[in-house]
Task: inverse folding
């Protein structure tokens, strides 16, 4: 680990004022300290934002305001989250371990980096880490990498569970930075790799996430389901956050589907949603929707399994959500 | 940088390199080697301690960020000559073999038993779930044990939880 | 019995290698090769040497003095040639861990890379027949005519099974603290499964007489074979301490463990089996392709269990090895037996399906009277009793053999069985016993790596002395104690227990002091086939949509001679089975074909089972009396638990889904495509 300076910010404005090129904000540290030890992140200075007064969870209008420094475990166990946004609670509980959830913050969870094995190994090329150096994952070990929306420059996946649920819930991310404050919608925070895979999100240097707001929960039933090789404490092979609202006549009145583990972003399955709206809720339509979404999939030789896995998961989850 | 923190009830004021983890501070500076380094990346749970009463991974916590924290390590679990009930249960149920994951398992279990709310395997999200074997298994999955003492760890924790 | 050191372990007082309080300690961090094959052209240490706290840099550009006799994996910095990615080419010594690590990152190494070959394949032109396979077994065996046996068969199975590289991953990373005395004597606090052996090997590498080296390992955080031989950390600590003129600690990172602490070789195994209409085997052939490094020939005995399992008139086993630009594979729990029995016991299940026979019955029908390859009589063999008892306890008799026929919601349910076996061997050991302060002290340079050796040896000594175990104190884990074999090959209790028993008997004769050395006794044993056996049963649930496999029930029934301590034994058997579940469902280290080495070098990407993976699991054993073993009548129990597990799971997955997965691990990816 390279030597770095450390300072604790007094408030968000102080944090932003302390920002210089080479500075990074430190939240729970569960990914940043990990990446610093690997040499992937080499900040010159850390500004500790973990104890900023951003740890409240409060109702806001019909929705909910979640402070950026709220710990994952506090988010998942908050009564309002459990009652009104069960899918969100499920997504958070599906991630990492009890200890990690006690440390990791909401903002840090959203901004965590890919677990692509080449990204994490500084002795090997990686366009995300060293733009222009190449992407060995395409010809190499990509069994758990992207099948949708990837580019010749990068096939990484975003590892968060929380972000998948937030994309389905259309959360809004509040940021403050040298240029003032702004709100970034989800989906929209994370970006596809294109030819700039070094940029995971649309955030500008120095911007600090201060809160995530959730609109009123969408009508219908919701589920978060995560598929992994072992029963717990593993990143998703594929995960799904789904909301389904079936009208009394049996047609789909509304739906939201987001997939994890398949792309550089938490993937909103808009094509599937379009197929479903107004269609009769049932296996046939669900399969059609899944296939429409996955038509655009471009699996690599060793991750082709993710396509049938995502398809089955969409169909199965929607069936379980059908009254 | 100088920080002051409390470890097992004892205040320590130390000058630290910002790079040093809480785990290395405990092990290399304070001669508290009970907390173990198994992976140094938050992937095994061997370094689990309680920070302000909550279980956390000391390998991913920078010491410099712990100003004012109260840390409890495995060395601080037992009272005067009296084992913590979980320590006694781990012995009684042979919930350890090589012992290297054991301090982390114990601190994790202490923290876990104080936690409220659902886990990934809880059927009903609202309300307080009963701490079944399946709940214990899920909640303790952040602590790897390569010797495979899991069934006995669950038995030991269940015995104390009852 | 409650583990003797248990209280130290639950209170955090048990001291592992990296934890000895040593004054003026410096820290050493290695620099690893970033090519898979080639040569170091130059090393620039200027920046590193100028960094805070740096004391010195060791590198292959200025080879430190080592003996030419050093094991090639331990001959650090002696050559500029790189044999595999991750090999140590330099190391930095500094006043703190963070300073050493940061400076190691600033050492600039220039390479002359050469083309590399890291891929094991069955048609590799470099495959050859090694002279022996581990530990000292014939490479090939042949009895009768396999071709004729197959031609005469009513049913045949011919299939290729593959197992990936896997890593031991003990929870305690390999670590060494080295101290030189003014007189040039070396003390190592090391994570070792055998301090006598470690002492000898390190002394050999350093060109010292063995008695000038002391290795101490009072507590070891698991090894599973990877701490059976000294690793580069031991020699590096010694060299660094010599160069720095003060004590030095080398604590490997988890990532480095994947590179330099050994792994189980990947295997490609071809099995041909034939049986008559009644399921009696007429031919059995087991051919194995596996790898080693260019540095050391390590030839795993993968087909060896096939030589002892089933009666057949024609039997052929063969091992072929290829030397690749990889790190040397090494010992991992049940080396040979474990991957070999995955193949054989999967093939037996396929044969049962092909012959329309119950897989338990098929195995019973082919139980041999004598060891098939050698013709030697068994000292005891109770595989059939294990199978019968397991079938009874597991509820096997109601099993419908049809695959893919049972559902629990969206999950397919199936059950499978496999046999296990592991040799019951001993190695020479010494022990002393004496009366001190009204109690008995037994000394032996044994190791307790989590097996409960202290506890088991206490019981054995108390039995031999006919006293209460509370009166006996065992000292182990120090090479200054009477020399002992290592904790490996399920030989610990048998080897050490023999020496301890004889030393105690000697004490009873002498009245004050007793000593034993088993070297001579072990030379004159009757020639018999000595093996433990077991039967393992698994019930799996396979998600029909996602391919996720969960093991809802598992039972192991073992016949391993006299069980010295029931609590310890149950923990060991179950622990082995859990590691076997990892092997079956998730464990694999992925070779990086482009860059060499492995891609998934941490515990987030290399999955071992977590608590939630283990639902109902149990291990039981049969009372087995065998007077041809040792004074305790005990066979080893450390490895047999893992041996049959993967095949039992794979066979259950077949029963659940109708899909035969012959390539471990059985991941959702394989079940979905």
Result:
């Amino acid at each position: 680990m390279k030597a770095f300076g450390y300072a604790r910010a007094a408030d968000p404005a102080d944090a932003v004022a302390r920002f210089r090129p080479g500075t990074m904000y430190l939240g729970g540290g569960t990914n940043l300290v990990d990446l610093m030890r690997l040499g992937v992140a080499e900040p010159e200075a850390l500004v500790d934002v973990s104890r900023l007064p951003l740890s409240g969870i409060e109702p806001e209008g019909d929705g909910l305001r979640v402070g950026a420094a709220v710990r994952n475990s506090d988010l998942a166990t908050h009564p309002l989250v459990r009652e009104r946004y069960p899918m969100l609670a499920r997504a958070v509980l599906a991630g990492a371990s009890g200890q990690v959830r006690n440390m990791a913050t909401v903002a840090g969870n959203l901004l965590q980096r890919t677990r692509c094995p080449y990204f994490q190994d500084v002795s090997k090329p990686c366009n995300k880490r060293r733009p222009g150096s190449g992407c060995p994952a395409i010809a190499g070990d990509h069994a758990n990498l992207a099948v949708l929306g990837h580019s010749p420059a990068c096939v990484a996946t975003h590892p968060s569970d929380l972000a998948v649920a937030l994309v389905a819930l259309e959360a809004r991310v509040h940021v403050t930075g040298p240029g003032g404050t702004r709100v970034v919608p989800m989906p929209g925070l994370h970006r596809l790799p294109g030819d700039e895979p070094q940029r995971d999100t649309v955030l500008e240097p120095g911007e600090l996430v201060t809160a995530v707001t959730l609109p009123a929960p969408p009508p219908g039933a919701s589920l978060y389901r995560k598929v992994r090789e072992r029963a717990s404490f593993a990143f998703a092979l594929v995960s799904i956050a789904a909301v389904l609202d079936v009208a009394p006549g049996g047609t789909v009145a509304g739906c939201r589907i987001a997939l994890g583990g398949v792309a550089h972003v938490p993937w909103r399955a808009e094509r599937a949603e379009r197929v479903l709206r107004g269609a009769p809720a049932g296996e046939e339509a669900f399969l059609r929707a899944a296939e429409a979404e996955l038509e655009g999939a471009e699996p690599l030789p060793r991750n082709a399994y993710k396509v049938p896995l995502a398809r089955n998961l969409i169909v199965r989850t929607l069936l379980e959500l059908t009254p | 940088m100088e920080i002051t923190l409390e470890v097992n009830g004892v205040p320590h004021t130390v000058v630290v390199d910002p790079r040093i983890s809480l785990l290395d501070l405990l092990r290399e500076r304070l001669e508290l080697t009970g907390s173990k380094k198994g992976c140094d990346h938050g992937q095994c749970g061997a370094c689990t301690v309680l920070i302000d009463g909550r279980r956390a991974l000391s390998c991913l916590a920078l010491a410099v960020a712990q100003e004012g924290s109260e840390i409890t390590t495995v060395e601080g679990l037992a009272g005067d000559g009296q084992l913590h009930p979980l320590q006694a249960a781990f012995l009684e149920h042979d919930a350890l073999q090589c012992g290297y994951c054991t301090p982390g398992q114990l601190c994790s279990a202490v923290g876990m038993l104080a936690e409220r709310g659902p886990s990934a395997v809880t059927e009903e999200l609202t309300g307080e779930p009963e701490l079944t074997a399946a709940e214990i298994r899920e909640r303790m999955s952040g602590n790897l044990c390569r010797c495979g003492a899991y069934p006995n760890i669950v038995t030991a924790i269940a015995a104390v939880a009852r | 019995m409650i583990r003797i050191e248990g209280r130290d372990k639950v209170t955090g007082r048990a001291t592992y290698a990296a934890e000895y309080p040593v004054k003026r300690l410096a820290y050493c961090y290695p620099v690893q090769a970033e090519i898979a094959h080639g040569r170091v052209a130059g090393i620039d240490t200027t920046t590193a040497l100028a960094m805070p706290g740096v004391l010195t840099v060791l590198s292959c550009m200025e080879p430190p003095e080592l003996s030419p006799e050093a094991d090639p994996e331990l001959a650090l910095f002696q050559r500029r040639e790189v044999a595999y990615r991750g090999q140590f080419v330099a190391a930095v010594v500094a006043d703190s861990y963070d300073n050493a690590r940061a400076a190691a990152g600033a050492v600039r190494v220039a390479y002359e890379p050469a083309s590399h070959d890291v891929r094991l394949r069955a048609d590799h032109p470099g495959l050859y027949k090694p002279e022996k396979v581990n530990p000292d077994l014939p490479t090939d065996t042949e009895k009768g005519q396999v071709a004729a046996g197959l031609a005469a068969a009513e049913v045949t199975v011919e299939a290729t099974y593959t197992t990936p590289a896997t890593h031991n991953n003990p929870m305690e990373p390999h670590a060494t603290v080295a101290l030189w005395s003014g007189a040039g004597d070396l003390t190592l606090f090391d994570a070792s499964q055998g301090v006598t052996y470690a002492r000898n090997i390190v002394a050999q590498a350093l060109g010292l007489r063995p008695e000038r080296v002391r290795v101490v390992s009072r507590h070891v955080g698991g090894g599973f074979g990877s701490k059976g031989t000294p690793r580069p950390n031991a020699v590096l600590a010694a060299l660094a301490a010599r160069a720095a003129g003060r004590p030095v600690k080398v604590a490997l990172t988890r990532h480095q463990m994947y590179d330099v602490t050994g792994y189980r070789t990947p295997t490609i195994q071809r099995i041909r089996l034939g049986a008559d209409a009644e399921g009696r085997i007429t031919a059995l052939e087991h051919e194995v392709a596996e790898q080693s490094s260019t540095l050391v020939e390590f030839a795993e005995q993968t087909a060896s269990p096939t030589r002892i399992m089933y009666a057949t008139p024609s039997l052929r086993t063969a091992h072929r090895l290829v030397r690749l630009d990889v790190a040397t594979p090494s010992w991992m729990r049940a080396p040979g037996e474990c991957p070999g029995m995955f193949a054989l016991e999967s093939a037996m299940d396929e044969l049962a399906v092909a012959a329309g026979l119950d897989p338990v019955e098929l195995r019973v029908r082919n139980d041999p009277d004598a060891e098939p390859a050698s013709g030697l009589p068994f000292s005891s063999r109770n595989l059939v009793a294990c199978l019968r008892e397991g079938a009874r306890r597991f509820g096997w008799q109601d099993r419908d053999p049809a695959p893919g026929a049972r559902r629990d919601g969206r999950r397919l349910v199936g059950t499978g069985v496999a046999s296990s076996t592991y040799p019951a061997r001993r190695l020479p050991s010494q022990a002393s016993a004496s009366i001190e302060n009204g109690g008995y002290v037994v000394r032996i340079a044994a190791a307790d790596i989590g097996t409960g050796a202290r506890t088991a040896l206490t019981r054995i000594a108390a039995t031999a002395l006919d006293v209460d175990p509370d009166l006996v104190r065992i000292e182990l884990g120090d090479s200054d104690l009477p020399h002992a074999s290592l904790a490996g090959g399920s030989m610990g209790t048998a080897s050490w227990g023999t020496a301890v028993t004889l030393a105690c008997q000697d004490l009873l004769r002498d009245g004050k002091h007793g000593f034993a050395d088993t070297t001579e006794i072990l030379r004159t044993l009757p020639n018999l086939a000595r093996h433990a056996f077991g039967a393992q049963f698994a019930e799996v649930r396979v998600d029909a949509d996602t391919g996720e496999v969960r093991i809802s029930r598992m039972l192991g029934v073992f016949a391993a001679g006299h069980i010295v301590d029931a609590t310890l034994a149950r923990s060991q058997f179950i622990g082995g089975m859990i590691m076997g579940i990892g092997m079956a469902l998730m464990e694999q280290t992925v070779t990086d074909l482009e860059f060499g080495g492995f891609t998934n070098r941490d515990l987030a990407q290399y999955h071992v089972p977590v608590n939630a993976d283990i639902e109902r699991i149990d291990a039981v054993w049969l009372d087995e009396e065998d007077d041809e073993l040792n004074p305790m009548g005990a066979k080893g129990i450390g490895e047999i638990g893992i041996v049959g597990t993967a095949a039992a799971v794979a066979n259950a997955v077949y029963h659940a889904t109708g899909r035969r997965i012959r390539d471990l691990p059985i991941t959702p990816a394989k079940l979905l495509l």
